[in-house]
Amino acid sequence: MFRQFLSLTLLLTISLCVYGQDMNKGSVETKYKNIYAAVLKILDNGNVDELGNYVDKNTVEHDTDYTITTKTGLEGVKDIFRYYHNIFPDMKTTINFVAVSGDTLLGYISQTGTTSQPFMGMPTGQKMTMNMVDLIVFKDGKMIEHRGFTANTDLMEMMQHDSMMKKE
User: Fold this and answer.
1) Which CATH number is 86's domain given?
2) In this structure, is residue 21 part of a structural domain?
């Protein structure tokens, strides 16, 4: 009888451990990761009309370049995406790492592309690779805030490499 009691207790303990977990946690993490991947795909393909499905209209973009746009929120993000897609129409983004904690996502990505026009000292036809980290906050299933950190050394090396090629 003691053995049956012990078996039942063990079974109940395992069940509580497995089924007592917050089942929504995994689905929220997956949802945020899928949203992030979808937004990066939009950046690559230039179809900014789909951004409203993933980005809140009042989103805060902390890395706005006001030489690109003076708009804020979703419309500003659309302008930024159009700008970069125009310069790098063959852009390909690779997600290297993604972590989600609560309502915040941290992503490490690599982007490759070829300039379609002169950009930051690079001539048309210059291939580039950049590594970036994104920090994104979500609310109600949409991105509401973004901070991006780019490894500018990647750009500097490409521009330096291009300068050296011209001297030869």
Assistant:
1) 3.10.450.50
2) no
CA pair distance 106, 147, nearest whole angstrom: 10
* Whole-number Å distance between alpha carbons of 51 and 56: 9
Distances (CA, A) of 121 to 79, 88, 95: 22, 14, 27
Whether residue 28 is contained in a domain is answered as no
pLDDT of residue 160: 64
The answer to whether the predicted template modeling score (pTM) of the entire model surpasses 0.85 is no
User: Alpha-carbon distance 120 to 139, whole Å?
Assistant: 35
Q: What is the pLDDT of residues 87-138, one digit of tens each?
A: 999 999 999 999 999 999 999 999 999 999 998 888 999 999 999 999 999 9
68 φψ region: left (φ > 0), alpha (ψ -120 to 50), beta (else): alpha
